[in-house]
Amino acid sequence: MYVDGLSAQEPKTAAVIASSFVFNSSILDNTLRSAGIPQPEGPKTAVATFATVDKRDGFSWAALECDYLIVADPIQYHLGEENQHLVTVLAQPVLEGTGIGTAYRRLDVSFPLQDGVTVYVYERTRDIAPEEYRAISAELTALYPEYAAQYHSPV
Predict the structure, then answer these.
(1) pLDDT band (50, 70, 90) for residue 126
(2) Which CATH entry fits the domain spanning 2-143: 1.10.12, 3.90.105, 3.40.190, 2.10.25?
(3) What are the C-alpha distances in Å from 25 to residues 28, 80, 97, 140?
């Protein structure tokens, strides 16, 4: 599988920044098993959990330490953008190459899916700056001040 190939030299980590019935982390994880495709030997890329529901989940800060982000375009939601800012706050700047998205470069591979959705893989090229962590925290806290503790930046 392509994602595991990212770990050919050494173990790597990735996070799926998408949450729809077209593409999400479970689809990525279960596709090979359900199709009966044999898993290659060697290191596997660990896929980190990424929370996707605003008022239920805190922001998945560990995703910012992953070596790769796997992002769908258009951004994928299963509960609507208005309930899944956790996805937008990271996926949008990565897709646009702005703000925190400048820490990533898109690899020369894409995976077209149904309904006009395309999945891209982005490699983190630098550490995420403390002010970028705080910007995510501030954006989410402004939307949901009553949930500020869930969005508190770790740096």
Answers:
(1) very high
(2) 3.40.190
(3) 5, 17, 22, 22
